[in-house]
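I am hoping you can look over what I have pasted underneath with an eye to the fold:
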Amino acid sequence: MSEVTEQLGHEAQYDNAEYENTTLVFNDEDNIEDMYLTFGVAEEEYGIGISYVTEVVGLQRIMGVPDVPSFIKGVINLRGKVIPVMDVRLRFNMPSKPYTERTVIIVLDIDTVMIGLVVDHVSEVLEIPESHIDLPTRMGETSQHGVIKGFGKQGKKVAIILDIERLVSNQRIEINQALHAVLEAV
């Protein structure tokens, strides 16, 4: 079971120190496969499977790493673990924006590889059954290579559900190379 920390559904007070963590608790009857952490980037709401999320932390010092794509902002040191960080805005070719007090890093564990995603804000955890997710289409055919897994609907809310493994899969080699370069330098 993943631990999700930080603000979910409420504003937090921010300062330069690391944020105080709070834990989100799931009932035993909650289906983890239908749970999505939703977050905002620009004007859109996105969702990722909660099973990938280890925690949400406040923005902290990101150490730049050379020779990586521009959307890989660098690495953070989170309790002794060096974690590469990707800015989702830049990954989606959106204009960059100064980070604010609501900007957070979602820390993910994808096949035992830790990675952080910088997002504008975290919204909430939604339960979206598979039957409420419309598959993406491209010119009448189902997309098999994009990062969009589908469009999740819960009531009037719609979130773009991301295939997180595809989102980072093209970058794993470069991320791993950057991470090894940083670890060798330390």
Summary: Helices lie at 88-91, 164-169, 172-185.
